[in-house]
User: Fold this.
Amino acid sequence: MTRAAVIGAGTMGNGIAHVFAQHGWEVALVDSAAGALDKATATIRGNLDRQVKKGTIPAEAPGEILARVKTGTSLDAAAGADLVVEAASENPSVKFAIFEQLDRIASPGAILATNTSSISITEIAARTRRPEQVIGMHFMNPVPVMQLVEVIRGHATSDATTASVMETARTLGKVPVEVHDYPGFVANRILMPMINEAIFCVMEGVATPESIDTVMKLGMAHPMGPLALADFIGLDVCLAILDVLHRGLGDDKYRACPLLRRMVAAGQLGRKTGRGFYSYDSGKGTG
Ligand code: NAD
Assistant:
């Protein structure tokens, strides 16, 4: 396999396109918003330049890598791909519509992967006539830096599809981990309850956000505290994933903290709005 299509050129899509192109793949990067494609190309260029400065790729590499990324707004660009990785907005109806179209457009042998954080791979696969060739390929943010790819098998995903995607992830320099399709997979099923518990600690006045993050950084050797991480991910995204866990697993231990729900209602979504558990106006958290 050497030709990939990446659908969605936002935070994750540009990083996924970057990593495939860096490892020699021809990449068709598709987004319904033309502006997102210009922004993605600029982001890839900036990140490649940083890699040159760090000495991890040679000075002539960025031009060669960028030349392998072709952008466009039509899903038809997926026709020539061996592997399609969908990284469009986290909205079930958006993803279902994309997979119905990809199933018609992509070649019969192509594997259709999704980078979803919380939507059922099995449900996405059921929108196609090739559910055995549909799989989760869950990259972490920032994609060029983070090693892990959670490879999620839907109910019908075949052994051959899984083996092929595990091998592809390795050739991209990543470490793939195979998991099964249950709500939140592994990463978010474990991470989100920890973040939620940290928010309960804030709500109950157990300690300040800075203190809670310090306990987890210095006591557990986490590189980032759970509240700083929640601000980075986006509090709306955390709430949506907790609701998926609560609904999908039916256990009240996944009940989102009322303070999280209130902050989302107030529009305090973390870094992207300048305020969450910390304030980012001055570039430094103030709680
Ligand atoms: P984003 O909002 O930054 O980008 C999504 C892009 O999809 C946008 O540019 C949008 O224009 C495009 N899009 C929407 N509908 C489309 C369509 N029909 N066809 C083509 N493009 C379309 O989102 P993101 O943070 O990059 O997340 C993308 C996916 O990756 C989601 O499924 C999310 O759950 C998952 N994910 C995100 C993170 C993260 O930290 N941001 C981590 C792991 C997985």
Summary: The radius of gyration is 19 Å. The longest strand covers residues 134-139. DSSP finds eleven helices and eight strands in the chain. Confidence is low (pLDDT under 50) at residues 283-287.
